[in-house]
Specification:
Two copies of one chain form a homodimer. By secondary structure, chain A is of the alpha/beta class. Chain A has eight helices and seven strands, in the order αβαβαβαββααβαβα. Chain A is about 40% helix and about 20% strand. Chain A has a seven-stranded parallel beta sheet with strand order 3-2-4-1-5-6-7, with helices on both faces. The interface between A and B is medium-sized, with 34 and 34 residues.
Chain lengths: ~220, ~220
């Protein structure tokens, strides 16, 4: 019975996600669902991306967290439209939360909408939001075994960004083994090595993003 | 309605957790529920703790993961009883999973049972297992804002271990501000600074653990 209830919830979520996608398309907004463990660097990547795209692409941000608005405050300082969703206790955003948020965003002023999901490698993977691309950040300090432990998240990702690459001298992380494990789950995924601390790889990530937007 | 269903689930879980606690007490087993984000160092702490207690306290380990048995394999090399629970897609262990696992553990040979929960800062906080103490690892690379974002997890913890303290020279992390935020949520919590890479603080953690076991 528990599984049936879950299937109903997921199916209802898919329908709302489809509505969100139609709304975004009608306004010419490209949406990215950004996911990772807590502290892997989602907000830092958003800040780096906004700075790289300044004067080129109009960015908006929706921040998802169980509690607090610390991320929205950081992003707000960049002068872009930003909205914080607090989920209460829920471990992921869902399509209905995004639907409510979209009605409070100035979509006509946005070309790229980055949605920062709740920090979690499990629950967000099951809930489509209506996004065009799903991006997963995995960071060096988390270790290279994450694809084995959280396979669904790696399976649904369009791109995996290996962040905090500047910490490689101080930690054990087998980039090649990690990449092979990721491709074993999801052979089409793009993998980038980045550091939001040094800006390493940010240009490549942004170029990929712009290509995806132009192909839509 | 969703909330009612959730309350029923949590209440049923509490009842099974109480049964687990009675079973553990009848066998003289002290149980610790170890929680953290993915990759914060739960398995590394278990390995360090087993090594420190070798010849003093008989340890057993239950490993919880969505998928894979990589952690159980690492722990098994230490020669202690270990069992892996794979939750499928579920984002936390629950009391019923632990009940099944306990019937497959040689409890008469164990004085300290460490239960490694699924890597997640949200869901595990809502599900008691029947443990005697709840221990949370928060690691330096995750950043010092986690108490604001995941307050429930910090609220229910008996001890918070700040791990990867050896990475402090390379990362921004305000230990004092973090500790104040944690104590703002949970004034009785014990806070330790540790590094599983250098063994810094492991003696203090193990001493605290032994004191808790002796007070039971």
């Amino acid at each position: 019975m528990e599984i049936k209830v879950l299937k109903d919830i997921l199916s209802a979520n898919e329908q709302i996600a489809e509505r969100n996608r139609q709304l975004l398309d009608s306004k010419g907004v490209f949406a990215v669902n950004l996911m990772s463990s807590p502290g892997a660097g989602k907000t830092s990547l958003i800040l780096e991306t906004i700075r790289k795209l300044k004067g080129k692409i109009r960015v908006g941000v929706i921040e998802g967290d169980v509690s607090s608005s610390v991320d929205a405050e950081k992003v707000g300082k960049e002068g872009v439209p930003v909205l914080q969703i607090n989920t209460g206790g829920t471990c992921h955003l869902d399509a209905n939360m995004l639907l409510s948020a979209l009605s409070n965003m100035p979509l006509q002023d946005i070309e790229l909408l980055i949605i920062e999901n709740v920090g979690n490698l499990i629950c967000p993977a099951s809930f489509a939001l209506g996004e065009h691309k799903r991006v997963l950040i995995s960071s060096i300090p988390e270790g290279d075994d994450k694809p084995f432990k959280y396979p669904l998240m790696f399976d649904i990702a369009d791109a995996v960004l290996i962040n905090k690459i500047d910490l490689l001298p101080y930690l054990k992380f087998d980039i090649r083994g990690f990449s092979q494990a990721v491709r074993g789950i999801n052979e089409k995924v793009e993998i980038f090595q980045i550091s939001c601390a040094t800006s390493h790889g940010i240009q490549e990530w942004v170029s990929w993003l712009l290509t995806q937007m132009s192909r839509r």
